[in-house]
Amino acid sequence: MTKHQIITSNSNRLDFIDSGSVNLIVTSPPYPMIEMWDDLFISQDSTIKKDFEEGNGYSSFLKMHALLNETWKECDRVLADHGFICINIGDATRTLGGEFQLYSNHSKIIEFFSSLGYSVMPDILWRKPSNSPNKFMGSGMYPAGAYVTYEHEYILIFRKGGKRTFKGKEKEYRQKSAYFWEERNVWFSDLWEVKGTSQVLNSSTARNRNASFPFEIPYRLVNMYSAENDTVLDPFCGLGTTNLACMAAHRNSIGVEIDEEIAKMARERLNISATELNKIINNRISAHLSFIASLPEEKKEKCYHNELHRFPVKTKQETAIYISTVSNLVYSDDLVTCEYI
Fold first, then answer.
1. Distance CA 137, CA 128 (A)
2. 337: which strand partners?
3. Secondary structure letter of residue 91 according to DSSP
4. Residues of the chain whose pLDDT is less than 70?
5. What is the chain's alpha carbon radius of gyration, rounded to the nearest angstrom?
6. Has residue 324 been placed in a domain?
7. Which residue among 122, 188, 215, 219 is least enclosed by CB atoms within 10 Å?
8. pTM across the whole model
């Protein structure tokens, strides 16, 4: 059984979460220097607006990251030793005071977590393919005036302390939570090509305030960096995509969203059926069976056998995998409880 909730709050104060009680944090914060989030930052520090008016972009950039750092400090407090933080962030380009430049959000976040003593793990480039014919910006065909248009974002990964050790029941959960050999080869690549998601929202305010990442991003990260029954936090949860990934992955989840309107939509989005969640789970199993079927006969013969699911797997570490399906969901106030088979 797992529990899932969306809490309306500013994530710079997570007093409702006990210190060291979270195993993994997966989030995509507001991106400093991206216009759609200007008002959010200005609402917390009015001097940012003055910097914009005076064309002082770098000062605005630093103040926005100072606001994010307050949340990162709280994340550090609630994260258990040896836990991971995965942050999806894009860099920004902007013209202020007549000057165009790049604002490197990912490097500021790396700098901050390094200062806290976190281990900086290899990051992932999330490439968001674009079919736009007008990708290239600047002075057209003439040299020395055009600039590269970004089609990627970063997934930064940090670990708090050394490797996590699993004992007793936790060791069993870890073995059940192993990923398939072919998933590992894709998920632990440094380049992910996953199409971005455009959200259809009923409110213009919410539309201007939200840019959720696609389900596949948190679903991979939750499976990669946590085990069954762990607790996952998303301090900038938006429409609750990380929570949904945790429901499908047999993890507990807490989502925090500052905007009550968006938080309400996220809670409605968690009102999902067991059938819908099981489609995600069964698609994962089907993909594995298709992979096994594609192997040449001599490689099939060398496969191991997973007794719980009664299908072949490539490695011995996969023989204890058990991907639970959802049997029932119970909704009460702001809490969703998932029961599994």
1. 17
2. 3, 330
3. -
4. 129-140, 196-211
5. 21
6. no
7. 122
8. 0.92
